[in-house]
Amino acid sequence: MDGTAAIRLLGPFELEVGGRPAEVRSTGGRAVVAALALRAGAVVPLERLAHDLWDEPPPNWRKNLHVRVSRLRRSLDEQGVDAAAVVDTRSDGYVVPVAHDRVDVSRFDALVSRGRDLAEQGDPGAAHEVLAAALALFRGEPLGDLADAPAGRAEIRRLGEARAATVDLDHDLLLELGRPEAVVGGVEAALAEDPLRERRWAQLMVALYRSGRQSDALRAFQRARALLGEELGIEPGPELRRLEAAVLVQDPLLDGPAPRRHGVPVDAAAAAVGPGTGVDAASAWVERQRALPLVGRRGERDLLRAAWRRVSGERVGGVAWITGDPGVGKTRLAAELAAEAAEDGALVLAARCVPGSGTGTILAAAAALGVPEQSDAGDLDLLSSAGLTWTAGAVERLEAVLRERPVVLVLDDVQWAAPDVVGVLRHLLDRPLPLPEPVPLLGVLLVQAGPPLPPGLSGLVGDTGRVPVQLRLDLGPLDDEDALDLLAGRLGLPRGAPSLPALIDLVRDTAGNPGRLVQVAERAGPGPPPPGGLAVVGVPPVIEAGVADRLALLSPPARRVVAVAAVVGPSFLASDVAVAADLDVDGVVDALEEATAARLLDVGEAVDGGWSFASAAEHLVVAGRVSPARRALVESRLGR
User: 457 pLDDT exceeds 90?
Assistant: First the structure.
């Protein structure tokens, strides 16, 4: 038996050396070992270690560290344990000389990464087993001996969120495996730990419904609604509200995975268009999108055309990743290229990702167009089932489709792409180069309301050696001239006085977002709008739902802080929000930064902590969801 140490931090501190338990009696010694173990195998300089252990290292911090390590070694020596196997001294610091897999924190991270990879590859069963093993490493609250240390606080927060996200993913996998009864108990336990996590309420509702408990699913929604109102002063987010409506009407989409022949559920929600195909669903999609105005974007259109010319001309794979705020025109721009590619003779597949969607969205469209007419339904089922096992026949059929002509796949809302969808895209794009023969690989347009890409696609898009043609477009707002032209045209107005000031108000309040301008024009009706912007015209329901979607993605603490900020005003100081929320400023800033990443807020350039809502639309929507009781409490704290 070797003398290698094993350190367990995901619960009460445990140390083994050579397979035998060893005791570290002092809290200070355990804190040193834990801090070093988080960087297992790496030498940690003394000054770095001091800042890991103390917010403000004491004047005698160096002596303090030496005393802690000396006592630790003496204690281990008394137990007959090789102290150097636990903490070794190097010229410039200390090191825990063990491999990463000897520390349970690192092992947890590795298992989670492996589980996510398996999920992305379309193997939910194996992914569940690996994630269950990762979660089993937790024996209690992690890193208790570092709870008051800077390194410990940061790592405890990270581990808490990583564990919560892993629990949520594991429940998604169990739903995908057709095991809703197993999810009910697990989600109830998870909600006891974090009752404000709306994703878990959604999982509970789906699991109850699929277990034949429709009334309990509706009661779960009411429980969530009451809790969110009481704790945060807000209504449930759009996902939960849509789920309630689906349960009420017994929407077939809630019924769960279809019977599996190869481990992947088959859904059929595809649309495709191409010359002579006889399938016009995607053609209708293109025409519907092109009926919307396309103002500006000349430079972006030129870049997309150039990328498509390379894909079709050189017969290589290509990815265009289009991001931007909802309504900024991402899908409209993608439809413009799709129409031009179809005119060039390309096959166009259009699909939209929704939470829980699978490979059928992509593969059924390819099958409908590329499989010969004499093929039977079993062939289509086999093709649609290829997302997990990639059986030889399914792969050959799919690649035969791609050899017939250039193909463009428009994948909208890719942030919701299921792991098996990601696996399909990786298979189609991630080919060894050079290819043995020219093959018209997919030209993929990934349309998403902001980074990052789903796991598994981010590395693929960034690896220029694997996908020859890549383009990243982050669409911003229209400039003032284009925005005024768009709004005036939709209202049937000339841009001149006397309507110009009111138009400027609406452009300002929508931040020049073309989709929002169209919605506002429809709400205002033809003719001159009243002055006063959205506060007078009102926020259209589509805009409200989009803002609510982004709000729902925030952590519960961030949602509460943003709600308080909305009462403070459209622009505010972090210190004022801290007073109004009765929180420390550091916690408020963390929440505001999370909301900024979600594009709900903008941070000002001033050094006094100035922030503002991204536009009047965001402010009005968030403020409108604050309960009267919460508003009164905030205003009383502000002395209003």
Answer: no
